[in-house]
Write a structure and sequence with these properties.
Blueprint lengths: L9 H13 L3 H17 L8 H6 L12 H8 L5 H14 L12 E4 L13 E5 L2 E4 L9
Helix pairs in contact: 1-2, 1-4, 1-5, 2-5
Length: 144
């Protein structure tokens, strides 16, 4: 089954984002991506105002980019995939307000194996989980 865009159901949007971004990072990696989503929802702004909006905001989570090979995968994955079932469970916890934050309030991250983005230059670092470095940049770039 292929999902129709935009995905408005928050658990589906969050689970597909976590799975698309971090299925290779294990449970903690997917949870950390969900934490970023939740932290952005807590501070609504240019990056979105609700879970589905934050997940699918333009140029925020690369797995949703039209040229990203993960996009078709995240649109077609089903709960027969063990990691996606895990992402669904974690996303349900996010939606229900019971997902602990592993990131210390991070609202951005990147894969440290690649080039460091401009917004991560020497500031607001929170932690590293797997291959992702997490930062609290804030809506205005001031870490708030």
């Amino acid at each position: 089954m292929t999902s129709t865009l935009p995905i408005t159901e928050p658990v589906q949007a969050a689970a597909r984002t976590a799975w698309g971004e971090a299925r290779g990072e294990g449970t903690r990696g997917m949870q950390a991506v969900l934490n970023v989503i939740g932290n952005r929802v807590t501070h609504p702004g240019w990056w979105g105002r609700d879970i589905a909006g934050v997940c699918q905001a333009h140029a925020q989570f690369s797995c949703w980019d039209t040229n990203d090979p993960n996009r078709i995968k995240l649109l077609t994955v089903t709960d027969s995939d063990m990691q996606f079932r895990e992402a669904l469970d974690l996303a349900s916890c996010l939606v229900n307000g019971c997902l602990s934050d592993l990131t210390g309030g991070a609202d951005h991250y990147y894969d440290w194996r690649g080039q460091r983005p401009y917004w991560a230059q020497g500031r607001f670092y929170k932690c590293t989980i797997g291959h992702h470095a997490f930062y609290r940049v804030g809506l205005r770039g001031d870490g708030m």
